[in-house]
């Protein structure tokens, strides 16, 4: 269900997406309001599910996670037991940054961050030892052109 947001809410969200560590005073000044109304709006947007967890973005390269693989998974299994095991396996693997179930020829796509190709192979071997898959294709990202968590509000 979509939440109704007015222009001030959207300004606040843009500021939070830009830098959530800003003080309420800074955000209020930038959006042309005062601290209390901004705080109340943020609280309501949290309660309404518009604002989820606040976190810190880390540099994968600075942490030695220089290889980003997009992993295409096809399966011949589609029952609930297999899917539950597969999803639990993905959720337990810290290398998996994103996982999506797809429509079309490919069943799942994963975004996997690891230090190098050898680490990807270790991930791959662990994955196929835990759950049966029909086909896996790994695509190494040569260059990250755009990566953002910012939504167009």
Automatic annotation (TrEMBL):
Coiled coil: none annotated. SMART domains: HTH_ASNC. It comes from the Bacteria. One of its GO terms (molecular function) is sequence-specific DNA binding. Residues 5-66 form the HTH asnC-type domain. One of its GO terms (biological process) is response to amino acid. GO terms for cellular component: cytosol. This is AsnC family transcriptional regulator. It comes from Rhodovulum imhoffii.
